[in-house]
User: Fold this.
Amino acid sequence: MNPTSPDLSSEGANPVHFTPEEWMEFRVRYSNMKHSMNNALAVFMALAELAQRNPENYEKLARSVCTRTSEIVGLIQEFSDYLDTKGSPPPVR
Assistant:
C-alpha cells in the first residue's frame, strides 16, 4: 500500500502536505486520539445508564464528565497544535 499525501486545505488556507512517514504519524496520532475519546464517551454512557437506574450514581457521572471532558479538550488541542505545525509556511512578502 502506498499512502498518498492528502491536501487538507480549505479556501484561503495554506494546504497541508505530508510525506509518507508524516502521513503514518498522522494516522497513529489520530487513531490514538479517537481511541481515547471513545473510551471517555463509553464511560459517560455507562455511568449515565447507571444513573438512570440509580440516582445515587449521578454524582459519579458528574465527576467523571468534569474530569474526562478536560482530558478530551486537551487531546483535541494537542492534535490541533500538531496539525498547525504541518501547514505550509506563510508566503514571504
Summary: The CA atoms of residues 18 and 89 lie 13 Å apart. The first helix runs from residue 20 to 53. The chain has two helices and no strands.
